[in-house]
């Protein structure tokens, strides 16, 4: 049995905790499809790095390796790859491609218009560099990008990926975001917050092994501090993108609602043609959210054949 066949066999027998389903089944449109998707391993994906390569050249080279590529309609630089491991190619080694989950590509993509003209950008939780290298590419390697990683040990992988992808506009900083100096105001801030990661089951089935609903409360308290600090570092009129790979409203809508109720912030709906986005929740358990929370986006695994994800594009009032 090949490693891929072993992975598929394990996924098909994945035990999903009853409490997990009780928590999320009321939020999805089709529980059976949701469960089936969770038991289907996630295909590898990558995006072409335009600072190093052209899409057509990458397609040609990957075809010679025997890769079966499906180009994403919603992002022409992104591909689902089957037949080979794209990490094991010369294109990955040379920085022509970056192997990255599709949902991870969404936060930079929804701020693409802002990034093309931004002078100062902060990626607040940057390692290993998936979003950072994509942000730099969308900035055309111009302006100044601060890649902040609070864990010093992880800055090594961040530095390596920036170099591999040919990025020169990024500066690595090593602050706890809550202690980040207040002297700069950024045009765009990305807060890809630490989370329970319970939307990543297709990639990491072990995420269910230690899953407990109370973990979301611990993360929520930290996430509120991080989104507040990110918003304080944003210039008036600037855009903050908050994201998690969690399905929990406690880590998503509750956190964004906290910001809206306490700061001059609004949420902007950012459609992605050919990509199914579900609006944020209006209410959950005892919580009734601000109406504009519906402009945030939930990504359910069965809608786009991805992991679960959440993002909100937030504008600071002038």
**Distance between the ends:** 59 Å
CATH class term: Alpha Beta
Overall number of strands: 15
Low-pLDDT residue intervals, each spanning 5 or more residues:
1-11
Largest sheet data: 9 strands, mixed
Radius of gyration: 19 Å
Portion in beta strands: 15-25%
Query: In total, how many domains does the architecture comprise?
Result: 1
Output the structural class.
Answer: alpha/beta
Q: What best-fitting shape do the alpha-carbon axes yield?
A: globular
- The DSSP helix count reads 12
What sequence of helices (H) and strands (E) makes up the elements? Answer: HHHEHEEHEHHEHEHEEHEHEEEEEHE
In helices, the fraction of residues equals 25-40%
The third-level CATH topology is Rossmann fold
Reported CATH architecture? 3-Layer(aba) Sandwich
The whole-number mean of residue pLDDT values reads 94
Name of the CATH superfamily = Vaccinia Virus protein VP39
What would you say about this model in short?
The chain is α/β, with parallel strands linked by helices and 318 residues long.
Structural summary, described in words:
The chain is α/β, with parallel strands linked by helices and 318 residues long. The protein has one domain: Rossmann fold (3-Layer(aba) Sandwich). The protein has twelve helices and 15 strands. Strand 6 (144-148), helix 9 and strand 7 form a beta-alpha-beta unit. The N and C termini lie far apart (59 Å). Mean pLDDT is 94; it is low at 1-11.
């Amino acid at each position: 049995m090949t490693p891929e066949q072993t992975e598929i066999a394990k996924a098909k027998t994945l035990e999903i905790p009853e409490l997990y389903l009780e928590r999320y089944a009321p939020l999805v449109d089709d529980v059976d499809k949701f469960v089936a998707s969770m038991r289907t391993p996630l295909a590898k994906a990558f995006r072409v790095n335009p600072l190093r390569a052209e899409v057509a050249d990458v397609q040609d080279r990957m075809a010679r390796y025997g890769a079966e590529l499906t180009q994403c309609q919603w992002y022409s630089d992104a591909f689902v790859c089957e037949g080979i491991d794209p990490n094991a190619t010369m294109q990955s080694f040379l920085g022509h491609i970056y192997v990255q989950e599709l949902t991870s590509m969404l936060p930079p993509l929804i701020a693409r218009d802002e990034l093309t003209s931004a002078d100062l950008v902060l990626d607040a939780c940057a390692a290993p560099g998936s979003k950072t290298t994509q942000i730099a590419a969308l900035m055309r390697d111009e302006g100044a990008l601060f890649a902040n990683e609070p864990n010093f040990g992880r800055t090594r992988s961040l530095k390596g990926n920036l170099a591999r992808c040919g990025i020169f506009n990024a500066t690595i900083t090593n602050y706890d975001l809550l202690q980040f100096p207040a002297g700069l105001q950024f045009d765009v801030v990305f807060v890809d917050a630490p989370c329970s990661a319970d939307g990543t089951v297709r990639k990491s089935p072990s995420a269910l092994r230690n899953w407990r609903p109370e973990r979301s409360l611990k993360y929520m308290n930290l996430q509120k501090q991080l989104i507040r600090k990110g918003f304080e570092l944003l210039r008036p009129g600037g855009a903050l993108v908050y994201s998690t790979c969690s399905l929990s409203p406690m880590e998503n809508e509750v956190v964004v609602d906290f910001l809206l109720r306490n700061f001059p912030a609004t949420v902007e709906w950012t459609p992605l043609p050919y990509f199914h986005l579900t609006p944020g929740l209006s209410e959950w358990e005892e919580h009734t959210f601000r109406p504009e929370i519906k402009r945030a986006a939930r990504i359910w695994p069965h809608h786009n054949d991805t992991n679960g994800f959440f993002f909100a594009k937030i504008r600071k009032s002038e």
